[in-house]
Design a protein that fits this description.
By secondary structure, this protein is mostly beta strands. It has a single domain, classed as Maltoporin, Chain A (Beta Barrel). It has 8 helices and 40 strands. The strands form 8 sheets. It has a 22-stranded antiparallel beta barrel. A 5-stranded mixed β-sheet has the order 1-6-7-4-5. The chain starts with a helix and ends with a strand.
Length: 738
């Protein structure tokens, strides 16, 4: 019913836009109108921020099925990882050491981060790269945006621009681990110079590098657009359906050395602990549909406005088999207890039974409504941006008992916990960019965010959850830009940001909101053939919610407030043309990331560890792309990434250390132009990890106190797990455009 209603609403709005009687001219400023909706959220070289712009063409030759984070792996300060090990399925991104919950993502100005977890689940939008026309990543706090605050970076995505010419495009790729991608794209081109309908259908499957880490992914994108010289209206529907076999458990160091691809998910044991097989439905399945309406209007030569409406419907669950022997002898969890499952003990043959092997399914069904507005004006030396956003989220969480070997009551799919989270957010911002003279310009940005979050009911355990919190955050930003000449600019900025805790933080205790003061100093050089940026940053945190290293039962990282902490770093980023055929894009980030006066309870005693490394924050992250293009229709690129050693926890334990790694990818692309019926035929080859490096990009670290082995004595035990990444592997693609 929700799908029908929203589709009907989008159709009405679109049809009303077509009914407008507006004169048409031969010249349609498509690019300008396309950018109206994100004009207030993106920055350029006249503003004091570090950023990277990426367009569709830069991603095309590597767009062979891997998720968007993997496509962005070579940007400054970026570290990516893949649960399945090959970039298809669940993937993650960190920027400046900040995890995905601190990376703000918007799609056409609409927030994409999940409201409760603040995470970004790219697996829910497979092959979305094919529908992206451009993106901008701002590092640090950046300019004010919609949604949760950016503590590491913000990524602003703009979907496909209106195409003036009709086309059909078929893209297929095949690769290692039985990976396949099929994509169909089309556009009617501009009909009567005003109307365009375009779309995409995609299907991606892969066995994954890790055992049984299969992915079965599908997605769609449909856009109807009306435009004239002053107006652009779009109705967009897109979404995805993912089914992935669980691969978020990782493996310990012993298993890593024996079998890198081992996956413990779904194991079934007999009463003596002998492995009998694996549960075939140990999968995560989720569907997500987005309905967007955008109206971009040019009011006059100086002023434009944008209105955006969004509804997102997400629903899905992960299914899990809980083996009795494994939980009692290896995992030591209470997931097999009747108390956990909401059941009463039973008596069989005079013996009380209160445990059972079982199959459970944990559901999330959510609705997300968003309205955005922006007004942008630029005249003479002054540019003004005003923006507002309001959002409402409702998320139903519940667990179903699918099967239990012994059960006292309850029918199949009996709910053993149920709760609901609600979150509303209001956001207002105003931005001023003023050019004093040829040398100096200033930037002022004022934002206020208001958040209300409640969650009530029972959670797995069963335990009660009762959250009722309200936050109000004032986030000012100010900066200056000094123009030495047309090629050289120096900038200085200060930005303050706040973030509310996420749902998991509340379930772990009583978290405090985070505060960040971000200082940036940069030099930007721009010439006809080269660009270069040197940026120094100092990020001063209060109550930062850092990753502890531990993960929960679905592989999500846990966090804790750490009081004072900081990140100090320098970013060097260049793009140089070397003659007529060669180009060089190097970048490196050198940083010091520290907890200040960190305390840890070891062996029952609280210990001051002083300044320790922040978790998952390597001191060195570097990228390098060397491209050789002898002719316009073919190119060869060598892409290299280096990530320095990092700690998975905050106590500088050797057991929590991830080793440094350097990997290289080889990308070859060739295009045949105007071959009979075909406008173009593109062949792309991507060889990942061409040197077959055995590396690990992610893991987890945990501690617990043992007071059982030696009564009267507390001993702190450390443990760690790792997510190995694939060795040499390939993807080969064929793209035909009619």
């Amino acid at each position: 019913m929700k799908t029908i209603y929203l589709g009907f609403l989008a159709t009405i709005l679109f049809n009303q836009s077509l009914a407008q009687k507006i004169s048409v001219t031969d010249t349609i400023p498509t690019i300008e109108l396309e950018e109206v909706k994100i004009a207030g959220l993106r920055v350029d070289e006249s503003q004091p921020f570090a950023y990277s712009n990426v367009d569709k063409e830069e991603l095309a030759s590597r767009n062979l099925g891997q998720d968007l984070p993997i496509m962005l792996n070579y940007l400054p300060g970026v570290v990516t990882t893949s649960d399945a090990g090959a970039g298809i399925g669940y993937t993650g991104i960190r920027v400046r050491g900040s995890d995905a919950t601190r990376v703000n993502v918007t799609i056409n100005g609409i927030p994409y981060n999940d409201s409760e977890s603040q995470g970004v689940f790219w697996v829910d939008l497979p092959d979305f790269t094919s529908s992206v026309s451009s993106l901008q990543m701002q590092r640090g706090v950046g300019t004010s945006t919609n949604g949760s605050g950016a503590f590491g970076a913000s990524i602003n995505l703009l979907t496909g621009a209106v195409s003036e010419n009709a086309f059909a495009e078929i893209a297929n790729s095949v690769g290692s681990f039985n990976s396949l991608k099929h994509t169909l794209m089309f556009s009617t081109g501009l009909l009567n110079n005003n109307i365009e309908i375009s779309g995409r259908l995609s299907k991606i499957t892969s066995d994954g590098y890790i055992d049984r880490a299969t992915s079965d992914l599908s997605s769609y994108f449909l856009q109807g657009a009306f435009q004239d010289e002053n107006t652009l209206i779009k109705a967009i529907i897109f979404g995805g359906h993912e089914i992935t076999y669980q691969s978020w458990f990782g493996i310990d160091i012993t298993t890593l050395n024996k079998n890198r691809t081992y996956n413990p998910a779904g194991e079934i044991y007999d009463d003596n602990g002998n492995l009998e097989g694996h549960y075939d439905r140990q999968v995560d399945e989720y569907l997500q549909d987005h309905y967007q309406f955008h109206w971009n209007q040019k009011l006059n030569a100086y002023t434009n406005l944008s209105l955006g409406l969004n509804y997102t419907w997400g629903r899905g669950a992960y299914e899990e088999y809980k083996d009795l022997w494994f939980e009692q002898n290896i995992n030591f969890s209470n997931d097999i207890n009747f108390s956990y499952l909401g059941l009463q003990p039973i008596t069989i043959g005079g013996a009380t039974v209160d445990t059972s092997e079982n199959i459970i399914k944990k559901w999330l069904d959510n609705d997300y409504y968003v309205a955005t507005f922006s007004l942008n004006t630029k005249k003479g030396n002054t540019a003004l941006n005003f923006g507002a956003m309001f959002s409402s989220y409702i998320g139903d969480h519940y667990g179903e008992l699918i099967f239990a070997a012994n059960a006292s009551k309850g029918l199949p799919r009996d709910r053993f916990y149920e709760n609901q989270g609600k979150k509303t957010e209001g956001n207002l911002y105003a931005k001023l960019n003023y050019q004093f003279n040829d040398l100096f310009s200033s930037y002022l940005d004022i934002q206020y965010r208001s958040i209300s979050y409640t969650a009530r009911g029972t959670v797995r355990g069963p335990e009660n959850i009762d959250i009722d919190e309200n936050y109000g955050f004032f986030n000012p930003k100010v900066g200056v830009v000094y123009n030495f000449n047309s090629k050289n600019k120096l900038y200085l900025s200060f930005a303050r940001a706040h973030r509310e805790p996420i749902r998991d933080d509340f379930e772990q205790g009583n978290p405090e909101p985070e505060e960040l003061n971000d200082f940036e100093l940069g030099w930007r050089f721009t010439s006809e053939k080269s660009t270069f940026l040197a940026n120094v940053y100092y990020m001063d945190y209060t109550n930062q919610l850092v990753l502890t290293g531990a993960i929960n039962d679905v592989g999500a990282p846990l966090r804790e407030n750490v009081g004072k902490s900081s990140r100090l770093g320098i970013e060097l980023d260049g793009n140089f043309a070397l003659g007529n055929h060669w180009s060089w894009q190097p970048n490196i980030t050198l940083s010091s990331n520290r907890n200040h006066d960190y305390y840890f309870e070891r062996d029952g005693k609280l210990t001051d560890l002083g300044n320790t490394h922040l978790s998952f924050s390597p001191a060195v992250v570097a990228g390098n792309i060397i491209t050789y293009q002898p002719k316009s229709n073919w190119k060869l690129a060598l892409l290299t990434k280096h990530v320095g050693e990092q700690y998975m926890g905050n106590i500088d334990s050797y057991n929590s250390k991830l080793s440094a790694y350097t990997i290289s990818d080889l990308n070859i692309a060739y295009q045949f132009v105007q071959m009979g019926l075909f406008k173009s035929i593109d062949i792309s080859l991507l060889v990942n990890n061409v040197l077959d490096v055995k590396y690990i990009s992610n893991g987890y670290f945990y501690t617990f106190d043992d007071d059982y082995s030696d009564p009267g004595k507390i001993t702190t035990i450390e443990g760690s797990g790792f997510y190995p990444q694939a060795g040499i592997n390939f993807l080969l693609g064929l793209n035909v455009k009619f």
